[in-house]
């Protein structure tokens, strides 16, 4: 009995929510799943009234609901999340949310709520449990924004991105005591008055990216964890000069016009500091200390406050002991002050690429033991000095990028410290490599000590002919030697120590040419990606057919044909191949058909592959029929030639024979006759 009662009860409960009676997937327009109804892009002009009343999540995006009418959601009493993006919505009638007291998330992005914002504001004010609101892309200015959010004291997350807000003062963001996330990116904000965010005591994340803010002074939002002011016009960033403990963990000041290193809060928890794409520099080397002060004039209403700041005092920056990620790339740094890294005892990722650094001294042993990635590429470095006395110096370094500098060497014995380094980029530096045990000094780099290296980039270093033992003791998987036109003039010998481990090998423009050198690739059994372009190879290295190559680049060589059987064998593993800029013979294209017809191989430059037909270059992809015919004739020619040569000789012989026969017919006949007679018995 109890069981029956229970099941009836459950049945009634199902009927009540509407999910038991109607199998979910059967609504005529909307897709139903669990307690979610998805009615996106169905040209609806009002909220469907025949969805299950138990719907908790309702998507009505990309419809044509211009007005959300009174009581249109009254049927959906347990609705928690409603999305009405991209509807051209102009008005939410004040009674629209009647009965939906549990709505906690409302997305109204990309509509036209500026048209009748005061009526809409009244509607929003009836949502007591709203925690998340998206008003982005509604052409709202600051007054409309203030009206719309005036009664939303329960909000925790608010997006006002992509609107027309120009300035903020303390009247605009009132009565939002619980707000934690505020997104104001992509507006036109050029002025933020002091106290504008004072009411937001729980604010943790503030995004002001893509606005027109010219400076940030007296920054004092101590509770903020993330501040994003990237892509503005900021020239100054000055935190309030006090000893308050800031919670700030992430500060994004990238893509601005900062001239000075920002004045950060003294006590902070900064982990990530992004300063790339500014105009940062230090000026102490230019100006004398005494001249390094500036006077800032703060105008706050009728109060004028003059503060003197020692902006160029380089070493008194704040406590950055939690900083892990510092990006100062794309600035104008031409030196870093002495002891700049002092106290950065957690820094793991340091990015200084695209600056004007000529020398770099890192003395701080703290920093050198925590660094994992160091990127110094695209500078003018001639000299890199590191204090490697400490045993743990560079012990955690994994990636070192020094590409495009003027380095001739590296700090002596650097590789005895970098036991975890996997990637080293020395490309585009005038370095020299020397084999182990060679007396080189610090003017040449001995890679053979760096046993942990897996990726080594040496392109464009103008290397001499490589010594045969240059890579001894390493197990490099990815090697780029391209644009060193002398490096392999003596053949592949220098690569024999890494032949077993190489997977990706770039030998573009390295002076290889099969006629002169030994081109045996059969030891490179793990190779999957090989670049042999720009090497004037006249014959295809047949040993490649024994590998399982996936990518092969043969551009800009002197190949006349490729061996068809080798290409067929290679085609089993090959995914991608580059073939253009070779003088292939138009009449020997059997290999092309083999490759082109393969389902697995893609000829990435198929449209540029040309062949030579009596010194005219023709695209192989649409070879004219006449050329094909001519090629057939050319091959047929040989038989013809033989015929032409042999036929006259035969004819001449025949004619000669006939003449001889005719001239000497009488005599021959007589001879035959006489013989016949003599032997015939009568
Ligand atoms: C909508 O409801 C509000 C109050 O709930 C009422 O003042 C208003 O007149 C209604 N509008 C329409 C068009 O019914
Ligand atoms: C705004 O909405 C109110 C109430 O629905 C209406 O009376 C008024 O005409 C609307 N104004 C505009 C400009 O649409
Ligand atoms: C800051 O905002 C911009 C724009 O939305 C975004 O691209 C960037 O990743 C953000 N920065 C951080 C640190 O999240
Ligand atoms: C810096 O000060 C020294 C004297 O202390 C002076 O000779 C020099 O000219 C000053 N340099 C600049 C750039 O003002
Ligand atoms: C500044 O203006 C306020 C009123 O706005 C006034 O009460 C105050 O006396 C003014 N102070 C000065 C220093 O002029
Ligand atoms: C001027 O600024 C300083 C430092 O920011 C502050 O201590 C002082 O109270 C300010 N004075 C006025 C009048 O606002
Ligand atoms: C910096 O802050 C850390 C804690 O965040 C503290 O342990 C350290 O002593 C501080 N260093 C200085 C120089 O104030
Ligand atoms: C093209 O073919 C002709 C013979 O048909 C040959 O003389 C010429 O050298 C070839 N051109 C090139 C670039 O190989």
UniProtKB/TrEMBL annotation:
It comes from the Eukaryota. It comes from Podarcis muralis. Keywords: Leucine-rich repeat, Membrane, Repeat, Signal, Transmembrane, Transmembrane helix. GO terms for biological process: immune response; inflammatory response; microglia development; sequestering of TGFbeta in extracellular matrix; superoxide metabolic process; transforming growth factor beta receptor signaling pathway. InterPro entries: Dev_Immune_Receptor, Leu-rich_rpt, Leu-rich_rpt_typical-subtyp, LRR_dom_sf. Residues 1-20 form the signal peptide. The chain crosses the membrane at residues 640-664. GO terms for cellular component: cell surface; endoplasmic reticulum; extracellular matrix; extracellular space. Gene3D superfamilies: Ribonuclease Inhibitor. The keyword Oxidoreductase does not apply. This is Negative regulator of reactive oxygen species. It holds the Pfam family LRR_8. One of its GO terms (molecular function) is receptor ligand inhibitor activity.
């Amino acid at each position: 009995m109890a069981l029956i009662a229970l099941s009836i009860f459950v049945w009634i409960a199902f009927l009540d929510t509407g999910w038991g009676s109607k199998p979910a997937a059967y609504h005529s327009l909307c897709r139903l799943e669990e307690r979610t109804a998805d009615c996106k892009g169905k040209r609806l002009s009002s909220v469907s009234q025949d969805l299950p009343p138990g719907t908790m999540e309702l998507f009505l995006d990309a419809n044509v609901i211009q007005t959300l009418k009174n009581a249109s959601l009254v049927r959906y009493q347990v609705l928690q999340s409603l999305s009405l993006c991209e509807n051209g919505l102009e008005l939410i009638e004040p009674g629209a949310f009647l009965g939906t007291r549990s709505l906690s998330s409302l997305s109204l992005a990309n509509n036209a709520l500026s048209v009748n914002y005061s009526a809409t504001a009244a509607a929003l004010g009836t949502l007591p449990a709203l925690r998340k609101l998206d008003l982005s892309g509604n052409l709202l200015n600051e007054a409309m924004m203030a009206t719309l959010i005036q009664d939303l004291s329960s909000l925790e997350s608010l997006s006002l991105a992509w609107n027309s807000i120009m300035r903020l003062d303390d009247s605009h963001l009132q009565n939002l005591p619980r707000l934690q996330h505020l997104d104001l990116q992509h507006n036109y904000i050029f002025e933020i008055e002091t106290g504008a965010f004072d009411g937001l005591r729980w604010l943790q994340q503030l995004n002001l990216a893509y606005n027109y803010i010219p400076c940030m002074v007296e920054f004092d939002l101590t509770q903020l964890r993330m501040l994003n002011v990237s892509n503005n016009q900021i020239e100054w960033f000055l935190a309030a000069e006090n000893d308050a403990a800031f919670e700030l963990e992430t500060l994004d000041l990238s893509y601005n016009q900062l001239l000075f290193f920002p004045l950060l809060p003294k006590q902070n928890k900064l982990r990530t500091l992004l300063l790339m794409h500014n105009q940062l520099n230090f000026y102490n080397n230019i100006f004398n200390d005494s001249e390094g002060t500036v006077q800032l004039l703060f105008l706050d209403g009728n109060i004028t406050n003059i503060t003197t700041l020692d902006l160029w005092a380089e070493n008194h920056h704040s406590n950055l002991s939690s900083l892990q990620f510092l990006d100062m790339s794309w600035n104008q740094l031409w030196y870093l002050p002495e002891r700049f890294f002092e106290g950065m005892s957690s820094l793991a990722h340091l990015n200084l690429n695209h600056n004007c650094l000529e020398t770099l001294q890192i003395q701080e042993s703290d920093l050198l033991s925590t660094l994992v990635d160091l990127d110094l590429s695209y500078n003018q470095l001639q000299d890199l000095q590191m204090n490697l006395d400490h045993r743990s110096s560079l012990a955690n370094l994994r990636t070192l990028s020094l590409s495009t500098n003027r380095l001739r060497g590296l700090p002596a014995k650097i590789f005895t410290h970098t036991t975890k380094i996997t990637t080293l980029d020395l490309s585009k530096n005038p370095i020299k490599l020397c084999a182990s045990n060679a007396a080189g000094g610090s003017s040449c780099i001995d890679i053979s000590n760096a046993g942990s290296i897996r990726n080594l980039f040496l392109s464009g270093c103008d290397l001499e002919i490589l010594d045969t033992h240059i890579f001894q003791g390493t197990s490099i998987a990815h090697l780029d030697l391209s644009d060193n036109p002398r490096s392999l003039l003596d053949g592949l010998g220098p690569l024999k120590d890494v032949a077993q481990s190489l997977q990706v090998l770039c030998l573009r423009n390295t002076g290889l040419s099969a006629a002169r050198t030994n081109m045996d690739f059969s030891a490179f059994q793990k190779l999957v990606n090989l670049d042999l372009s720009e090497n004037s190879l006249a014959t295809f290295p047949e040993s490649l057919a024994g590998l399982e190559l996936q990518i092969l680049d043969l551009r800009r060589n002197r190949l006349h044909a490729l061996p068809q059987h080798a290409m067929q064998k290679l085609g089993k593993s090959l995914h991608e191949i580059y073939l253009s800029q070779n003088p292939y013979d138009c009449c020997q294209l059997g290999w092309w058909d083999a490759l082109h017809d393969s389902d697995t191989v893609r000829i990435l430059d198929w449209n540029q592959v040309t062949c030579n037909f009596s010194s005219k270059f023709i695209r192989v992809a649409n070879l004219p029929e006449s050329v094909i015919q001519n090629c057939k004739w050319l091959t047929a020619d040989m038989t013809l030639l033989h015929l032409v040569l042999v036929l006259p000789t035969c004819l001449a012989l025949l004619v000669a024979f006939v003449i001889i026969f005719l001239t000497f017919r009488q005599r021959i006949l007589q001879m035959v006759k006489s013989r016949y007679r003599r032997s015939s018995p009568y």
